[in-house]
């Protein structure tokens, strides 16, 4: 077997006299992959262990079950190596160009560009020098990051850029562009959004934000607590952050209706020179509970069906309209509860039924499944 193995894979050799450990390379399509095979003392192939280089692991990621099967059923090591080579040939054909390594000038140019930009602006770079993360600080001291994924033909081929922004990231690129060009364009974009983030920072600081639980720089929505089981969703326009945002009041109808009437009646009082938060107070004629005056637990009322506050990322947003009840529910919980009642009825995407607590009429829209 040793002679046959040497003929088939001359770069894979035994490291011990017992021939239980083989180390070296397996060659496929003029590419060499580092491989080590450890056999048990009885040379049972089904108990062998494979140690692969990272390229080989990546290539065999979708073929692991097949490799394990061939280990169990191959008659000897030579047969397994031949079968492994066949699997690798199939994998390489299905992933053309996956192992294309950039030329040396790619790396030297990249190092030069990082030096010109400043190593202090490099947050991360992977071991392949293909993915970088650059930091940027706007004029208000907010920290931002942009992820840059370079292509093998960089800079002739434009990189993929992504960042935590509420608007699409548009980076202009030419074959003469560099990382410094990306960074400078990114700075201009975040500066243009400075007023938008200032609006949200004020809301986050001075109100109890119920959703999102942990806002990112890309989030333009805030659900703010007004009172027990009463809140308002604000959708801030990133391009016009000081204008009247889209508003959606959530809560029992007898509580929400007066607030909605004030909002509609006083909309003309909106002053773009004032902050969004101050405008909302003036237009709705209310004071929002703040971390300085209220505990968040005052607004974290559990769902009356699942007895939890958060269900995945959702919080209770359906409320019984009876003033004597006012029990909140998750939309998904209430929908499933009502759908299971023999007395409930459905019209299009709305289910009509009775409140689980007070038996008064209650309705809920079908829960939208997130992709």
Provide a quick synopsis of the model:
This protein is of the alpha+beta class and 371 residues long. The protein is built from ten helices and 17 strands. It has four domains: 2-94; 104-192, Roll (Ubiquitin Conjugating Enzyme); 195-297, RWD domain-like (Ubiquitin Conjugating Enzyme, Roll), CATH 3.10.110; 301-365, Zinc/RING finger domain, C3HC4 (zinc finger) (Herpes Virus-1, 2-Layer Sandwich).
Question: What this model shows, in words?
Answer:
By secondary structure, this protein is α+β, with helices and mostly antiparallel strands. It has four domains: 2-94; 104-192, Roll (Ubiquitin Conjugating Enzyme); 195-297, Roll (Ubiquitin Conjugating Enzyme), CATH 3.10.110; 301-365, 2-Layer Sandwich (Herpes Virus-1). Helices cover 30% and strands 22% of the residues. It has ten helices and 17 strands. It has helices spanning 2-8, 54-59, 64-73, 77-94, 104-117, 179-192, 194-206, 253-265, 276-284, 331-339; strands spanning 12-14, 21-28, 31-38, 49-52, 122-125, 131-137, 143-149, 160-163, 209-211, 221-227, 230-235, 246-250, 318-319, 328-329, 345-347, 350-354, 361-365. The strands form five sheets. A four-stranded antiparallel sheet has the order 1-2-3-4. The chain has a four-stranded antiparallel sheet with strand order 5-6-7-8. A hairpin with a 2-residue loop joins β10 and β11. α3 packs antiparallel against α4. The chain is flat. The mean pLDDT is 88. Residues 303-359 form the RING-type domain. It is found in: Cytoplasm; Nucleus. GO terms for molecular function: ubiquitin protein ligase activity; zinc ion binding.
């Amino acid at each position: 077997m040793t002679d046959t193995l040497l003929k088939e894979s001359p770069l894979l050799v035994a490291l011990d006299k017992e021939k239980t450990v083989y180390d070296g390379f397996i060659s496929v399509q003029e590419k060499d992959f580092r491989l080590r095979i450890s056999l048990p003392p009885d040379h049972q192939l089904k108990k062998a262990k494979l140690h692969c280089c990272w390229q080989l692991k990546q290539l065999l990621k979708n073929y692991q079950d097949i490799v394990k099967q061939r280990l169990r059923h191959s008659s000897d090591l030579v047969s397994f190596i031949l079968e492994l080579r066949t699997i690798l040939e199939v994998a390489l054909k299905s992933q053309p160009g996956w192992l294309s390594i950039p030329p040396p000038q790619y790396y030297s140019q990249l190092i030069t560009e990082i030096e010109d930009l400043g190593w202090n602006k490099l947050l991360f770079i992977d071991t392949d020098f293909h993915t970088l993360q650059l930091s940027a600080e706007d004029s208000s001291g907010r920290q931002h990051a942009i992820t840059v994924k370079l292509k093998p033909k960089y800079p002739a081929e434009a990189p993929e850029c992504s960042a935590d922004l509420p608007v699409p990231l548009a980076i202009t690129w030419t074959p003469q562009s560099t990382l410094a060009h990306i960074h400078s364009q990114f700075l201009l974009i975040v500066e243009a959004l400075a007023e938008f983030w200032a609006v949200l920072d004020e809301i986050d600081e001075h109100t109890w934000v119920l959703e999102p639980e942990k806002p990112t720089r890309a989030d333009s929505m805030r659900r703010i607590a007004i009172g027990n089981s009463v809140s308002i969703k604000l959708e801030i326009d990133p391009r016009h952050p000081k204008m009247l945002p889209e508003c959606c009041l959530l809560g029992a109808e007898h509580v929400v209706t007066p607030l909605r009437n004030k909002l509609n009646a006083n909309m003309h009082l909106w002053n773009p020179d004032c902050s969004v938060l101050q405008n909302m107070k003036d237009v709705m004629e209310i004071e929002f509970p703040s971390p300085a005056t209220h505990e968040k637990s005052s607004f974290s009322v559990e769902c009356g069906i699942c007895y939890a506050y958060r269900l995945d990322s959702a919080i209770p947003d359906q409320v019984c309209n009876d003033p004597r009840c006012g029990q909140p529910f998750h939309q998904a919980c209430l929908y499933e509860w009502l759908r299971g009642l023999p007395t409930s009825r459905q019209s299009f995407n709305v289910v009509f039924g009775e409140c689980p607590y007070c038996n008064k009429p209650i309705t809920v829209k079908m829960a939208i499944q997130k992709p």
